[in-house]
Automatic annotation (TrEMBL):
Lineage: Bacteria, Pseudomonadati, Pseudomonadota, Alphaproteobacteria, Sphingomonadales
InterPro entries from the UniProt entry: DUF1552
Protein name, as recorded: DUF1552 domain-containing protein
Natural source organism: Novosphingobium aerophilum
Amino acid sequence: MSRWTRRNLLRGTLRGSAVAVSLPFLDLFLDGNGEALANGLPLPTRFGTWFWGCGVNTSRWFPSKLGAGYDLKDELRPIAPWQDKVTVFSNFNCVLDGRPNLVHWSGVMATLSGAAPLKGGVNGGTSELPTIDCLVADYMGQSTRFRSLELACTGQSGVSYSMRAGSTVNPSEVDPVQLYRRLFGPGFQDPNKAEFTPDPAVMLRKSVLSSVKDDRDELMRTAGAADRQRLEQYFTSVRQVEQQLEHMLEKPAPAEACQLAKEPGAMALGPTWDVATRTHDVMAQLLVMALACNQTRVFNIALSNAGSNLRKPGDPVSFHELTHEEPVDEKLGYQPRATFFIERSMETFASLLKHMDGIREGSGTLLDNSLILATSESNFAKIHSVDNLPILVAGRGGGRWKSGQHISGNGDPSSRVGLTIQQVIGMPVNAWGQGAMEVTRPITEVMA
């Protein structure tokens, strides 16, 4: 009989004291039935995703002209000041290939993970593969204090489109005050200060993880195949924590644009439009300074959940409900009450671009040194269409991305956008996706 039970901990000794690290749930717990900085380093590239729910009106959002100098339709007009830094993608699809169209889920997971999911719906679901932000964080997130930051604007921490695989969601920060304290509280080390003192608490945490190595090795020898796979995933995350802690014990590199942000006051949280967009604005400003201070290089922002519960003050009917219940105005050709949220969503995205483009870095801006993948889960939400998904990429990737174009995918999988981003960032990947969404051909028109 195995000595390992659910109550077991990995144990070790640190400075003469016993220490322990908990374990994930395993089968063996069951019975038999179961440019350049001052230090010479190049300016870092940042990557983020920005999600809004319930799609667009095709004729009012997508440009008619391809290439540079594309025309801006009414719903996309808010990005006008940054048009030369925003790439618009049209006619890129979620290719279902026999899989179900899981309403308000298939489209976003296809674009962000490269695979059409098998389970899900308006309240979320599963992902067949890790989302692109996780892959990018694995590649370039180990040298920062936070591998990535997830933010949601409607007060619900479960609203997140960052997933490792399966049903595991990386939860979102929803309160600007708590986000501030996490970023700029006692653990923050100003990269521009001359003196540096390692945090004793960080030193202790790193030593605890290192001290349980012998128990960890014994458990790996004892576990069955399925448990070894789970443990390998678990210990990979433990090693990532160790790497993060190692970085936190080193003096951070100078960051010319870094300034200590001010703590925001307490705010109401929720899906009312004014409240959600105020939350977005405050958290976006904190995020931008976190990026400028090299606290993280990867982020995800969800303006709302996919079946958007955003609503106007005093109105019990949500954006999602409007997309299905409001008739299309015969003279206008669209749903005016629902379209309010589409237009304002693009204004909110433009506000993030304004904040990022206002931070000078080297000869450019923070936006110039970033790539932000913005998308929604459907084209026209009234019919849950997942062809011609609305996709934007903002930024220039440190000069490696040819921005300011409108590119048509001619019906190709939307995963081509994600593959291109990964290659532009420098990741060694030649193919990405699963099944009909697997692609090997990047979009060379945007590759500098």
